[in-house]
Amino acid sequence: MPALVASDLDRTLIYSAAALALTMPDARAPRLLCVEVHESKPLSYMTETAARLLTDLGDVAVFVPTTTRTRKQYQRINLPGPEPTYAICANGGHLLVDGVSDPDWHAQVTARLADQCAPLAEVQEHLLRAADPVWVRKHRVADDLFAYLVVERELLDEDWVKELAVWAENRGWTVSLQGRKIYAVPKPLTKSAAMREVARRTGADLTLAAGDSLLDADLLLAADQGWRPGHGELADTDWTAPAIRALPERGVLAGERILREFIRTVQGAAGPGRSA
Fold first, then answer.
1. Which Gene3D superfamilies does this UniProt record tie to the protein (predicted)?
2. From CA 144, how far away is CA 102, in angstroms rounded?
3. What pTM value is reported for the model?
4. pLDDT in tens, 50-81
5. What 3-state DSSP class applies to 265?
């Protein structure tokens, strides 16, 4: 029975230049591999060691990239190792199988959203009306499932975000502030549901997960074991749970540590005679 590893990507396994947190002397900084180019510019990185570890992980487990990114945004990423058979995009709204969205899964998700929370149009209208143009740079809708704002963090009114969270909670939605983006996501739209579906299809008897944001909490809780880095929304609020390990590493080195933990745990579950 295989092990399944469902990991968030941004600020968990891959990092923008602003999120690398290279606090060591320059001469001791890790060598980096660019894994995403957008509009002809390098955008996301991991260490070369992390790239090797991710390739090794694919030899011992079913690796499932699990992201809030849209399908188009996810497909810009060029991760090392073989192309994953499964990927979870749009916070669980799309389950990709060999790069193609599973239509039955997407239909189930959209039906659940229609039954259990306020419609996207209502939330989008509220964001357009309530967000201050002084600090909003972009309004976006992701795969017709959820909405987000791109903001100037130094100008952002943090109290407004708290008020938005209360407003959204009453309508069955969750608000998450990640870097320069404020996400409004339906509560029934979860990474955990999609991970469970992949575990069912693969027959996985061990599920592992990692993530840094509020939108990853359900994924971590659904896994047999989970890890969070020393940065991000979950770290900022000291969020934890019995099967979750809070790691001290911050920035791109946290991605390296998370991959080591995945491999160590999978190999340990496989029995003696294999070393991490």
1. HAD superfamily/HAD-like
2. 16
3. 0.93
4. 999 999 999 999 999 999 999 999 999 999 99
5. helix
